[in-house]
Structure formats: C-alpha cells, structure tokens
Amino acid sequence: MRRALVAANWKMNGTKAKVTELLAAFKEGISTDNMDAAVFAPFVYLPMTEEGLSGTGIAWGGQCSYTAESGAFTGETSLAMLKEFGCQYVLVGHSERRTLFGETNEVVADKVAAALEQGVCPMLCIGETLEERESGITEKVVKEQIDAVIAKVGIEGLGKSVIAYEPVWAIGTGKTATPEQAQETHAYIRKMISEHDTNVAENIQILYGGSVKAASAKELFSQPDIDGGLVGGASLIAEEFVAICAAAG
Ligand code: 13P
Known about the structure:
The radius of gyration is 17 Å and the shape is globular. Helix 1 runs parallel beside helix 11 and helix 5 (about 105-115) packs parallel to helix 7. The protein is built from 11 helices and 8 strands. The chain is α/β, with parallel strands linked by helices. The chain has one domain: Alpha-Beta Barrel (TIM Barrel). The chain has an 8-stranded parallel beta barrel with strand order 1-2-3-4-5-6-7-8, surrounded by 6 helices.
C-alpha cells in the first residue's frame, strides 16, 4: 500500500518572518501519522527549516541541486550541502527549471542520478504544456521525460524516486486538472512504468501538482493512482496547506 505524500514547494517566496510563521503552523497542524509531508524551501531558509521541522515527522528538501560535489560552479548548490542541512528530498526538473533555466531531459536525468548517488530522494517533476496537451501528445511527452531518467539510472533508480506529475498549464493558473484528467495521466504513467517493472509501478508514489487547493485536494487524492500532491501557491497559506495534508491523511 502506497503512503500519501504532500509536499510544499515555496518556490522563490518568503521572508524570515513568513517562513517562521509557516513552519510553526505546519509543526502544530500537520499529523504525519497516516501520511508523509515535506517542505521545499528556498536555499537560504533551509537552516531555519531544519530548525523548525526537526523532531516533527515532516521532511524537507531543496528545490534544485547541481551534480558536482563541490567546485567552481558559481550560484549552484551541491547535494552534500543539502544533506548537511538535513534534506531528505530534492526537486528535480520542475517545469520552471525546464522552461526558464533550460534544463533538458538529459540534464534532469543527470540530476536524478546525482541525487540517488548521494542518498537524497529525487522528486522528479514531469508534465506537458498546454500546446502539447491540445496536440494530443501528453502521453508521449511524459513518457520521454521518464524514459530519459530510466535510461540513466535504470528502473531501480526510478523506483527510489518520487514522481510529481504537474501539467504546466495547471501551474499557478488556478486551472486544476480535473480529477479524471489527472487520474488518466497518472494511470498511464504507472502503466508505462509497469512495462519495465510491475513492482516499481505498484510502489512508486506519483503526486499531482498544479493549483491544488484545500477545496480540490480530497477528490484528487481519492483517485486510485494519485498518491498526494506537490503544492505551490496554497503552501504559502498555512491553513490551506495544513488542510491539504489532512485531506491525504
Ligand atoms: P501551484 O500550486 O501554485 O499551481 O504550483 C504548483 C507547482 O508548481 C508545485 O511545484
């Protein structure tokens, strides 16, 4: 039986005061007895996040990482650094990294490989643009995104990862995929993984992301192949995120 996982992606948002307030509210309001929760904080707030969430059941992680262990890579952050601040997860291949910062399927696969080597769980983000959906190639796009990772780390490597399906047209737009639309793609993803390994397909957590709100969470999470959510905007509102976690518990 797969456990539900709900993760907050704060993206490039927050202040010290806001982060303090959110962490306190998450600590107080989220029970991880029946579900897993994680927070992806901006790098500069990871020390505060570690302090605020240590001893709770809530995990945390970085929003990005570089493949090298150290060296002359101005602006980048290594997995060793993330681990030093207690990160269990790292986001890889978020659509904003792909579209705004040029991360290709191959770059994303290398980052998944580096995370696995360092023992940090990669949360692999995939999803199609509106144009791709309207041209009927959603399945082809997500298959290519996953195949690039399997080619690099094998199906066993993918099995140690979490997948977040985030249709690009639903991110930050208020336009959530309907539970049926999301389920259809999640079921496809699980089916294409089962062609490699049925055990991995059965056990891998596949989260939905894209305008998840407390009001839509329960129905999304009740779909058979949706194992939780990756939440952007609503994770910056304490009571919304706490309610979304409760919907998964
Ligand atoms: P929103 O929840 O703001 O649509 O963002 C989704 C997302 O990109 C999470 O990674």
